Amino acid sequence: MTDSNVISIIGPDGAGKSTQATELLSKLEKQDIDCEYRWFGAKHFFSLPLLVYARLLGLSEVEELESGRKIGYHYFWRSILLETLYPILLFIDTLFIYLVQIYIPTKLRGRTLVCDRFIHDILVRAMLSTDDDSLHQTYLGTAFLSLVPEQSVTVLLIADTEVFRSRRDDVREDKSLDRMISLYDIVAESTDVYRIDASKDPKEIHAEILELIE
Known about the structure:
This protein has helices spanning 17-30, 48-57, 80-108, 119-130, 139-146, 161-165, 169-172, 177-189, 202-213, and strands at residues 6-10, 35-39, 60-64, 70-74, 112-116, 152-158, 194-197. By secondary structure, the protein is an alpha/beta fold. It has a single domain (6-213), classed as Rossmann fold, CATH 3.40.50.300. Strand 3 and strand 4 (70-74) form a beta hairpin. The chain is globular, with a radius of gyration of 17 Å. The protein starts with 5 loop residues before the first strand and ends with a helix.
């Protein structure tokens, strides 16, 4: 069905990434393709002490909603130290997880991976945290994007702000949503990403994804 060893679904929260990744995985398994699901959001190891430091300085906060969901905000552009070090340490974290979760399964075991979120999502989060529209064009941003395998298909589920706000309370209350959507557009314009309108019916979106990878 596909020669791609990584198929990733990216986009803002509420785009339907998990739904589409699950559906796609089921489709591939029915065709006896050796595949696995991966949730590939940002994970913090080396960057964790920096996040603690940011919280102590008041440059990071978490808002908890009545539903129990939480919204995190970073204001790292207010500190030269955080603005400089956070993307670097986040890249190191991402590289470590990439080697374990992506490189070894695809290169050494020959598996196809269906990723719910991917490198692009982490890069967008770094751009949002540092308020840097051009981070993806820097040496570090290029290093992030170089982790995307050549044999891969990346699908961006994107729509207007109102579409996302209507789906979940944490997305509805997220004050950075408009900014995040604009950053996804910026990254998508300079990378090999297929855009699909997230406001469409999930079945229609699934059909488009299948058409892409076929």
